[in-house]
Amino acid sequence: MLQVGVVGAGGMGTRHARNLCRAGARVVAVADAELARAEALAAQCQARSVYRDGRELVADPAVEAVVVASPDPTHAGYVLACLEAGKPVFCEKPLAMRSEEARAIVDREVALGRRLVQVGFQRRYDPEFRALREALRGGAVGKPVLYRLWHRNVRAAYGPTSNAEVLVNSAIHDLDELRWLSGQEVELVHSVVGRTVDPSLGEGVFDLQLLQMGLRDGALALVELNLSAAYGYEVGVEVCGDRGSLTAGLPRGVVARSEGRCGPRVSADWLERFQEAYAAEVSAWVRNVREQRPWPHAWDGYAALVLAEACADSLSTGRPVRLPQEAAPPLYGPPEPPDLP
Hints:
Blueprint: E1 2-7, H1 11-22, E2 25-31, H2 35-45, E3 49-51, H3 54-59, E4 65-68, H4 75-85, E5 89-92, H5 99-112, E6 117-120, H6 127-137, E7 144-152, H7 163-182, E8 186-195, E9 208-215, E10 220-226, E11 234-241, E12 244-248, E13 255-258, E14 261-264, H8 270-273, H9 275-291, H10 298-317, E15 321-322
Parallel strand pairs: 1-2, 1-4, 2-3, 4-5, 5-6, 7-10
Antiparallel strand pairs: 7-11, 8-9, 8-15, 9-10, 11-12, 13-14
Helix pairs in contact: 1-9, 4-5, 5-10, 7-10
């Protein structure tokens, strides 16, 4: 049984710890800057060790693999510590705050000659999005010409202080989803525009952003990121091809009629909406550790950050940004496990 240490005992760390126990792994250590929170999660999982510093957890000889679900700015440091220790690591998105940090992780993995890092892009494990991707690959709508993605939160709960932070923390999911669904890299960020919906965020922090991009094969993409949609949590995608369109992520489930309204319920947050995907990705990670083929991998985390930074540049300058055409090192092929559920 794989013995795992969890760094970060907040909402995501707790969710991953519970899913690990169901996936045939054992949580043996928990670390969190708030020791009481780490102790509470450790008690739930019957973990025997508790730490305030995640690096102490990584160094624990009883810990065979690590889940990093701590605050975003700490991710790169903990992942690099895991690589130095030769331990597989599942890192919640983003892999790092800057592409230079993510590239350092990639370079370290390449030097080791082993893929040890899996990034928490859980939409790749969502059944509905996977079904849409399979339909695309099967030619259901012909050649895709337009990808339209939307990502709406009730409010910007984490209080971003810059537009770059909005893109790296939230839009990073949509940017990775675009790369994954299309199988293409973004060639040009045509424009990014934004406005402030929630005035408590402060002047110049845009919780509503529209990203317009061009892919290498000529298709276009439009991403709507709305952190203050108020009504609930909803993400979706429509892909228009030259022979039709496919849509995933529309409200679904039981239709309720009450208080003058008729419609299905919308999820309250990402934890509720993606519980099935979170469980699937952690289960796959446990298997991937054994088979030494983590996916999505460090290059995916790096590529998404490069794209997020290009979007931030376009937003700040008002000009299009052309992305560098980098090829992934051979270590990162094939693109995904062939038998992924």
